[in-house]
Amino acid sequence: MNNNRRKQLQAIREELQDIYERLDILCDEEWAAYDNLPEPFQDSERGEKMQSAISTLESVRDQVSEAADEIGEIWELSGAMPARDQEQRSDGIFRKYDSSNDARADTVGRWRSGNES
Prior knowledge:
By secondary structure, this protein is α+β, with helices and mostly antiparallel strands. The protein has helices spanning 3-35, 39-42, 45-77; strands at residues 86-88, 94-98, 103-106, 111-112, 115-116.
């Protein structure tokens, strides 16, 4: 995959992450609205519809997260080095395995949540 398409994928992933965050806020707000209903209303048809809507909203939110994760995997696989030849250290730096001399060398740049800095 060329650099232009990789950049497009990264932009889409970032948009999906933003959508996830917005949906997560909406879920929290809807749960708060439901929790603030008097108990008789929570047990009513209105309360059941709110719970169903919240459940659907959470499902959509989770699907958006999964889509962003899948794009991240595509992005990693299309990178300069195959995923099988890299490992991520705890400090976020990827190291490339050099099988020709059994040594490891730091890759250029850092990897932060699927983004190159």
